Amino acid sequence: MLSIPLKYNVRNLFVRKVTTSLTVLGIALVVAVFLCVMALGEGLATVFTASGSEKNVLVLRQNSQSELQSGISRDQAPLVKALPGIEKDADGKPLVSAELVVVLNLDKRDGGSSNVTLRGVEEKGMALRPGMRITEGRAFVPGTSEVVVAESVARRFKGAEVGQEIRFGAYRWKVVGHFDAGGTAPDSEIWTDTEGMLNTFQRGGYSSILARTTDRAARDQLVAALAGDARLALDGKVERAYYDEQTATAAPIRFLGVFVGVVMAIGACFGAMNTMYAAVSARTREIATLRALGFSRLSILVSFVLESVALALLGGVAGCALAFLLVKLALSGVTGTTNFATFAEVVFAFRLTPALLLTGIVFSLVMGFFGGLFPAGRAAFTKITAALRQVG
Amino acid sequence: MKILPLILKNLLRKKTRSALTIASIVLPLFVICLLGTLLRALEADPSGGKGMYRLIVRHKVSITNWLPGAYDPKIRTLPGVTEAVRMQWFGGAYIDQSAKNQFARFSVTDVDRFLRVYDEVSVVEGSEADWVGDRSGLLVGRQLMKRYGWRLGQKVSFKGDIYPITLELTVRAVFAGPDESGVYFHHAAIEEALPRVKGYVGWYWLKTASVADTERIPRQIDAMFENSSAPTRTETEKEFQSMWVSMLGNVKLLVGSITTIIGVVILLIAANTMAMAARERVTEIAVLRVLGFTKEKVLGLVLGESFALSMIGGGLGLGLFVLLLPGFREGLVNSPMGAFAAGIRLFPEVLALGFGVTFAVGLLAGLVPAVRSAQRPITEGLRQVA
ipTM score of the complex? Predict the structure, then answer.
């Protein structure tokens, strides 16, 4: 079978500059919108998938879905800390931290207010989260109402700069430092020490206990030991799995992305179809000539589908570039939404991954294929004699 | 010659193209209306104005911190407060934690006064007295009754997550109102199983005598408890709801920009069609001009065609939206976003938005081709070979 050279189609696209660029722009915008919304969902999901270690076990009260709902009494804590399998730090102390979380309603810089998690941690709290470091100021001194604030929280909320004070009626916390947790869950939090917090809020117990285990076997043993102790009525969860359960927070955004993307793609597909129909009808005689020269129906069909796919590909590439620029320049800052499992804000950044960009390209190719199929069919089944006789 | 029949004839010349253009306007316009409705519903007041007279007093730190129940006499006796109840969020799970079994579960301390504050609802099955009289009684929204097929007297159990207990409750009354997706029961039921929570409440819900009171009373209440161990934040119901929206983050901006871009995409598609149509008819338009058509008529002819396309597409899109909205709302009512669905209505401003977009698309898409067709010298047009 003789195939029509691709050059023929590419040149045809450039002949009809206005139509081609309007269609390309339409497809580009659809791809860009789709990618931006998906990048938002991806950024949000990454916070959870990047958080939590396979070696850490998070201890919560039975049936609790999140730390906020959980409660562990003061006398239970030593029993949990004494369980076998918990790793010792270089100084010989167990890597374990009994923590308390409270949600604070703080004013945002751009108006409105949102909930932020205030977390009380013990001495080993930071060692339990690798990748965390103080970027400005210093760590808090236990028992002094000092706090360290995540950089991304400080950027979004009022009164969280180093040296400032976070106030709440009778409560006051001095901000002594900022920290960065590399895009993981603590990046949405404010940290202080557990003992001080228990006093401030007059709480009789902790929210959770986080413990590092020596290895996988020790971890499973610890989880089993907790499940087997009916007296404690506590559950041990692998920290990694705990955060995986919260990725559901990103589901509505992803749904919005796919829904808007698909509906718009159908619209853009019709647009591409229009362009291709016009391209076919303008070239009726040309197509008939090709047929008369011996090109088969199939090669004409393939040729026109390829033309449409090339058109959409241009749009797809332009859309990816547009989304890339948007995310790099306009949307590079962090944003936040509420995780309704923890009732507090999650701070995250847009994340346009190579996989997403590839999805965008594939998405445009699909649009091009379906947009070109019917017009190409019309071209392939052009009656040679009638078409050659046609004037104009 | 009348211009309208000519426009219609032109539209029917390339049926596939007109149909495709119309189709590519219908779906995006539908999405624009849907997103617009979601935005409006986020700001809507599901209580239908009754919430204007209501205030919510919560712990200043956040809604997850509890308040002492002992504030009750001080709050209730304030001049301007006509009624107040203490409430708490129970949360927990019915059957399981999955999304399809999510609905709001609240406990009420002062059950006898509850329906005087929550006064946009009415009991349609069972009676208020039955619910008030039974410490394990459950007041259920009508929509929820239907969703689970519950009957009066049915036993329902909720497994706690915040509270380590399981509640066994009996359906005693059903209410109808704007939001029928929640259940309410006696706080005593939690206190009996878990005495340590006695004396604590989640928030106070109060009704005031006038709108002026809703401005004065919050400051009064907050000043009263400012230096206590549990300071308060008092807000109107509207402000309280907008906190939830604000917690979602920049939803408004996100949805707003998506809507704008969809509008631009429709415009591009329609403009493309009109550019193609005008280009094909260069010679024909020159002939019309020779026959005595003025520049203005040619302008009207091309613009008219563009308007006709966008109006048909827009009309169908709006029609589809109006037809499908009740179904969409119905679907949402039975989802975890049930309370939000209560705010969804056919907003006139959303229809106006849809119409505005349609109008703008018709005008802008046709403008350049129309002006160019009208301005092209006759001789040049006649000389052109298509």
Answer: 0.75
